[in-house]
Amino acid sequence: MKRHPELTIVATDFLWVVDNSGSMEEEQSFVARNAALFCEILENFGFDFRIGVITTDSARLRGTFTDDCAAFSENVQVGIGGSGYEQGFLFAHRALDPTSPERLDFREEAAITVVFLSDEDDQSTTPEGLLIETDFYIDFFNTLSVRTFAFVDLSIGNIPICPTAEVPGKRYVAVARGTQGGEASICEPDATDSLTRIAQTAGRTSPDYPLPRAMAPITASFVVTLDGEPLRGGRDYHFDLATSTLRFADEAVPPVGSLVAIEFATFVPLDPTGGGTKREEPACNAPHDR
Fold it and tell me: Taking all residues of the chain, what is their mean pLDDT, rounded to a whole number?
């Protein structure tokens, strides 16, 4: 079998979820000043891209999805008059949920990468005021084959290391890691590395196929084929029950454009007959290709 190439360049819609609370002027200005650099990096990687911007208190698109650097620079400066109760996950969910009246107009053929830019952590809650677990959002993004990127304070403690940050972005980082995404510090004075990581997150291939936890697959029941040829469990792949992820071995990662068929039985029946489920998807990070 061929190895995955390092990058898979596909049509990609980037959704920036920007904190618009009172302490975010510096971070917004930083991204705005480097908007042309971000576009240049995407173009150098060969992306067919569009960029949209919403905020941590609204799923309303600022401007339009665009591939114009000047427009992105303007759109990302969302102001600092928004809520100090940042709910980036909640409004990204509304913008992405196929059943939501607030869903944005993503291209059908495009992969989606969500970039969270904030100097605080996510505070998404239920209508009753209960903090929504990160696992809910990890499952949601993985179900849609969406990768996320945390552009936040990366302190592992409770005190931020960035002088402009209020709170470390631990929840954003947890979801980024759970969606095969990436992370970068808002402290870095040079944007090149951080913006390059965003491009790499969107374009890189992955040996991991996350499955929604609610499916509760039975590990011993997996039948996995690559372009119709059976793969060997325990050698070509294994299922990580803790993360509900099917992980291919380095030498067995499917090449881009191939069709991976994953069949398994479940502990919780998914239909009235008590049968299992079958999931087919090509090996790529785009929702329609993966």
Answer: 85
Per DSSP, 261 falls in state E
Taking Cα atoms as reference points, which of 2, 38, 23, 71 lies closest to residue 192?
38
Per CATH, the number for 11-203 is: 3.40.50.410
Indicate the pLDDT class of residue 186, thresholds 50, 70 and 90.
very high
The pLDDT of 37-42, averaged and rounded, is: 95
The partner residues of 261 in beta bridges, in order of sequence, read 225, 280
Beta carbons within 8 Å of 212's beta carbon, 6+ residues apart:
139, 142, 143, 244
CA pair distance 58, 82, nearest whole angstrom:
9
Query: How many other CB atoms sit within 10 Å of the CB of residue 52?
Result: 23
Quote the CA–CA distance of 184 and 175 in Å, as a whole number: 13
Q: Which residues of the chain are in CATH 3.40.50.410 domains?
A: 11-203
Whether the pLDDT of residue 6 is over 70: the answer is no
Q: By the 8 A CB rule, do 47 and 9 touch? A: yes
Going by their DSSP bridges, the two strands 48-55 and 147-152 should be labelled as unpaired
31-40, 88-97, 191-200: segment of lowest average pLDDT: 191-200
